[in-house]
């Protein structure tokens, strides 16, 4: 599988197994890194913009998962669902909330511009 990937990349190389690890050696033919990346890549997506996009997405997911958690609490109180459902629902909502806080802090830490 690795040899097939090397062939698709116009690369030559070898792979071998030493103990529990695979050792892969590859050489790319004609592959170079661009000397000035400011002219190669599109500068429209900055790190601050990407952090804002991730923040908006996680805010939407957090609202959805918190709403799901509140619905599950109501269903458990009415006796419609088993209380064990709250455990997974709380973990999902709390996990998404912490990721949202991370992206908020990350977005605020990025310089303007």
Q: Summary?
A:
By secondary structure, the protein is α+β, with helices and mostly antiparallel strands. It has helices at residues 2-8, 47-78, 84-109, and strands spanning 11-18, 21-28.
Description:
With 113 residues, this protein is α+β, with helices and mostly antiparallel strands. It folds into 2 domains: 1-32, no CATH class; 47-109. Helix content is 58%, strand content 14%. The protein contains 3 helices and 2 strands, in the order H-E-E-H-H. It has a two-stranded antiparallel ribbon with strand order 1-2. A hairpin with a 2-residue loop joins strand 1 (11-18) and strand 2 (21-28). Helix 2 (47-78) runs antiparallel to helix 3. The radius of gyration is 24 Å and the shape is flat.
Could you list some keywords that capture this structure?
alpha+beta; 2 domains; two-stranded antiparallel sheet
Could you give the topology of this structure?
Elements: H1 2-8, E1 11-18, E2 21-28, H2 47-78, H3 84-109
Antiparallel strand pairs: 1-2
Helix pairs in contact: 2-3
Sequence of strands across the biggest β-sheet: 1-2
Biggest beta sheet attributes: 2 strands, antiparallel
Taking the alpha carbons of the first and last residues, their distance comes to 44 Å
* Residues in β-strands, percent: 5-15%
**Helical content (DSSP H or I, runs of 4+):** 55-70%
Shape type: flat
Backbone CA Rg? 24 Å
Let me know the average pLDDT. Answer: 81
DSSP, total strands: 2
What is the string of SSEs from the N terminus onward?
HEEHH
Structural class: alpha+beta
Overall tally of structural domains: 2
Spans of 5+ residues with little confidence (pLDDT < 50)? none
Number of H- or I-type helical stretches: 3
């Amino acid at each position: 599988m690795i040899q097939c990937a090397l062939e698709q990349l116009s690369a030559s190389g070898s792979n071998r197994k030493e103990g529990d690890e695979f050792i892969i050696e590859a050489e790319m033919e004609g592959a170079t890194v661009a000397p000035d990346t400011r002219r190669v890549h599109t500068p429209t997506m900055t790190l601050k913009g990407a952090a804002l996009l991730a923040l908006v997405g996680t805010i939407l997911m957090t609202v959805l998962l918190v709403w799901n958690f509140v619905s599950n609490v109501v269903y458990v109180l009415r006796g419609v669902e088993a209380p064990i459902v709250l455990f997974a629902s709380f973990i999902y909502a709390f996990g998404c909330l912490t990721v949202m806080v991370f992206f908020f802090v990350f977005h605020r830490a990025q310089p303007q511009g």
